[in-house]
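Z., the sequence and structure:
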Amino acid sequence: MLGLLTDLMAKADGRCAYAEARHVATDTEDLAVRNGQVDDISSSTAEGIGVRVRVGGGWGFAATRDLSAVGAEEALGRALAIAEAQPAGPATPLAPVEPARGHWASAFAIDPFGVSLEDKLALLFAAEAALRGDQRIVRTIAAAGAWRERKAFASTDGAACTQELVACGGGIAAYASGDGELQIRSYPLAHGGGFTAAGWEHVAAMDLLGQAPRVAAEAVELLTAPPCPEGLQTVVLHGEQVALQVHESIGHALELDRILLEEASYAGTSWVGPGDIGSLRYGSEHLHVTADATTPGGLGTFGWDDEGVAATRTPLIRDGVLRGALSNRESAAAVGLGASSGCARADGFARQPIVRMTNVSIEPGDAGTLADLLADTGEGLYLETNRSWSIDDRRLQFQFATELAREIRGGELGRMYRNPSYAGVTPRFWGSLDAVCGPGEWHLWGLVNCGKGEPGQVMEVSHGAAPARFRDVQVGVA
């Protein structure tokens, strides 16, 4: 396919200011067991070519499932016609890029598509059965999924590269009901389970079977736990919740197309302005955030983004001050950045690249282990496993709920509370950050349901995070 794409770019040269073509082939599999029965066995494949061109200041995009030279040329013709039909406008520049050349592949030990369906279901059935036993457990789920994505990319800038990503993951959840309460406990995280760029060895290492009794017991215990105390509290967030907080109130807020108001009609805008880069106080001096598309195992890791920009590590926030943004070639040039941060990503072959997160992570701090952080905290609340979230379209005001809270008393975890939530305003909340655990507690959390764009695109991203402490946080009952 790479040869077909490079030939196509030769035919595009001279007919437009710039052109690129991507061949994408994707295989996916999803499995789920619920209440002792198979709930889902599904697999799908998708393959095609997407072509994007620029004529003057207008873009044109077209896609096709016809993988022949004729089909690709027809897609090029449609893309050119769309670009030429755009309203006349200035030909704004694109940030320069070195032509992408070579091949990149993610690492894995056990190909998830090479493991038999029987073996996968056996693991899920065993884990799901271990969640049952108490009559108050009314719903039990064990799920796993995998995907493989193969890409070829060529452009009139001289790019010609290929890459392949393999990822998988899974999780379990138990729902308990009683006395008018419905409680859930999930592992390793909510909203679909934990995923990473790895093979089936990742699912096996999660020990879903071994964790199931604890998960079920905590769901039942939550039924009679007291409601979460309300008011201003010192809060320690589990690493998974910190990761989601980073995703919603930092990652999305620093997408440069949102900052430039190009996503205002769908995904929203940002409380950050274009002139804030380099000076805005985003949080306390303990806040260090990096976008890194080279992180091993990350769902936002690749060799090149979908504009052929090489994977890079971009400092976003240092010592609490905004230092960078997530950009593609067009938005980077619009604000005078010397290069794109390599954040142009597309959902399959039939969507054009837009600005998306790579692996946006909060760097580990010097607070040691979680036990060290709790001991130093003395009194407060520990919140674990996201349950729901709400945030405005500027990524400024938010409310998050978690599956449970635990009392921190005398520097140790104490009794459990149910239905905790916390709320805040982004810069004020990150300004209250006063400690982050060290590298030993840092973990890469994968999210598979990040939506953006029109038509909508769903993207997989990862966020590295460790448990962190925040002072004077408004806590309540969800």
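The first helix runs from residue 2 to 12. The CA atoms of residues 168 and 391 lie 28 Å apart.

Let me know what you think.
H.
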